[in-house]
Amino acid sequence: MRPNGPFPTDGDMSFRTDLISALMLLTRLPVRGTPTPRAADAAWAWPIAGLVVGMLSGAVGWVAAQSGLVPALAAGLALAVAVAVTGALHEDGLADVADGFWGGYDPARRLEIMRDSRIGTYGVVALILSLGARWGLLVAALDQGAFFWVMVSAAVASRAPMALVMRWLPGARADGLSHATGVPPAKAVWLGLAIGALALLVHGPLAALVAAAMVAAAVSGLCAVARRKIGGQTGDVLGASQQLAEIAILAALTAG
Length: 256
Prior knowledge:
Layout: H1 15-26, H2 46-66, H3 71-86, H4 89-103, H5 107-115, H6 121-144, H7 147-157, H8 161-168, H9 177-181, H10 186-201, H11 205-230, H12 235-254
C-alpha cells in the first residue's frame, strides 16, 4: 500500500480495484472490473465484502421477520442468502478442515484429504454444528430485536482475522488458493482489523471487547491446531477461521 495513507488511491492499487478484488474472491456476486493484481494486497477490503454479504442477508431476514414469519424461518432465510452470496466458500473450508485434520494420519495425508472435493463424516458434522449454531444465535438476535446490525457486524468483523492468519502462519502447501493469494501487507491486516473493530463498536465498547476476545480465542486455537496438524495455513483454514469468528461474534453480541 502507499505510505501516505491507509487507503491507496492511484498507481498499482486503488480503493476500487481492492474492493473489486475482495468481492470477486469472497462472493459470487456478478462483479465487473479489474481486481488488484495480488489479491492479498486487498485484504483490508475483505471486511467490506462482508458488509455487502451482511447487509444483503440481514435485509432478507429483517424483511421476512417484519412480514410475520416466525424467527426460526426468518433466520434460516437470512443464513441461506449469506451462504448463497458467498457460494458456501467458508463453509466448504470448515468442512475440509474437519475432514483433513481428523481424518488424516500425517500432514501430507491431511492436505490430500482437504483437497478432495468429497465430504466426509467430520465435515458433515462440522457443517451441521456450524450452521446450527449460527441459526440458533440469529434466532436469538431476532428475539432481542437486534438482528440486522448483529448480522452485519458479524459478517464484517469475521472476515478481518483471515488476513491476520495468512500473515501469522506460513503456507502449508506450495499451491492452492491461499498460496496464489499471497501474504497480506501489515498495513492491510491492521486496517482490516480496524474496520472489523468499528463494526463491533456499534454495539458498545464492552460488547465489542467481549466479541474480540472470543474471536481471538477461537482463531488462535484454530491456528495452533493447524500448525500442529499441517504446519501452517491453507485457504480451507482461512474459511474455517471466518466461520469460527462469526459464531464467536454472534454468541458475544446475543449474550445476556
